[in-house]
Design a protein that fits this description.
single chain, six-stranded mixed β-sheet, three-stranded antiparallel β-sheet, 1 helix, 9 strands, 38% strand
């Protein structure tokens, strides 16, 4: 399997992983065949260590594809391990959503949408 297929397989099983460079100990997402910081090739997929939190979000009131996305819904930038930011859909009630709120990986949909809650 290739790196991306490995990541997809783990995510579909409910395990959101990031890549750690063994050479420089930096983390990155999305998975690549090289480290974006030191160009090293000694990389491994690991489950993120710390709980993620909402870094930024916006409420979508008009869907670009009503068959897949029923408004209103939230798109967010989630920060993982205080280093990586991932764009995702947030399954959180409007009354509960806030910057800094802890969230966890929920699923990767069949359409490739990353969902945190």
């Amino acid at each position: 399997m290739d790196i991306w297929e490995d990541w997809l397989e783990l995510a579909k099983k409910g395990n959101f992983t990031i890549q750690i460079c063994i050479d420089c100990n930096k983390s990155q997402f999305y998975p690549r065949s090289f480290c974006q910081f030191c160009n090293g090739i000694n990389l491994e997929l690991v489950s993120y260590k710390d709980q993620a939190h909402i870094y930024s979000f916006t409420e979508i009131l008009r869907s670009p594809n009503p068959e897949k996305f029923t408004p209103p819904y939230f798109i967010g930038l989630v920060e993982i391990d205080n280093a990586i930011k991932v764009i995702c859909q947030l399954n959180i009630n409007k009354e509960e959503i806030s910057i800094g709120k802890p969230v966890k990986f929920k699923e990767l949909t069949n359409d490739g949408i990353i969902i945190f809650h």
